[in-house]
Amino acid sequence: MTNIVIKPTGQISKLLIVLGLIIAGWVGFDQDAAGQSGSKLVELCNSVAGDDATYLKDFYVELDAAGPEGKAPEQRFTIVLSKNTEYRFTVCNAEGSQGKAILQLYDVSKLYASTYNPQTGQTFQSFNFQCQKTGAYHLIVSFLDGKKGSAVVIASFVRTL
User: Fold this and answer.
1) Structural domain tally of the chain?
2) Which of 13, 34, 102, 139 has the fewest other C-beta atoms within 10 Å?
């Protein structure tokens, strides 16, 4: 009797990575919670991510304004990312949102990327991240100047490195 071993090709490996990420990081999305239709905001933000990006997951954020102590509220999400893979993270504010969303990507303690540069005050709608280590990463979303706001974050697959 002969044993047959099937080795995945490059395309199948990419597909397995994308499917694994979708399954590993799946969180429900409450479309009724969005001021603007959640699915429309996700579609809009996905188109902003670019034609070279493949949608993986979305994260909806709705935060109140900062309290009397002045610290801006934030929401945290965890996502599993794979080594040797480039991702794009795109943030889009909901229509009528008072605040402008800021997205930061961390591992346990290191900040890897942000849509906000505090030295210049400049904000960006997205950033790419070339993952060098498979593991859990944390997305932290807040709103500039502690304002109340609603936004969606899109995680996308760009390419295998």
Assistant:
1) 1
2) 13
